[in-house]
Design goal:
Elements lengths: L1 H101 L1
């Protein structure tokens, strides 16, 4: 009788182990599938939204760089040159005026 109970317990424990292994295998497969889908969704999101925004940002940065270069060459440099000439003329007039005062 004890042998029959012992064999019954072995059968029950073996069945429970098989069920537990099956559940663990299904869980691991589910996690693996979710990771793959998440990875694919991330790639799609990067390709469809983030990469175009980064490309537009790079274009905008190039436009700003070109605009600042143009402004520097065509506007700021001539103004600085003009102001330098005016400052030089003022210094020359001041120097000439001081020569007349010293005598």
């Amino acid at each position: 009788m004890l042998e029959a109970i012992r064999e019954l317990i072995f059968i029950i424990v073996g069945s429970l182990l098989i069920i537990a292994l099956t559940i663990m295998t299904i869980t691991i497969l589910s996690i693996w599938i979710l990771i793959r889908k998440t990875k694919q969704a991330f790639k799609v999101t990067m390709d469809e939204t983030v990469n175009p925004v980064l490309h537009e940002l790079q274009e905008t940065a190039q436009n700003v760089k070109g605009t600042s270069h143009f402004m520097s060459k065509k506007t700021i440099s001539p103004v600085i040159q003009f102001l330098s000439i005016i400052k030089g003329i003022n210094k020359a007039i001041g120097f000439i005026g001081s020569i007349g005062r010293k005598k």
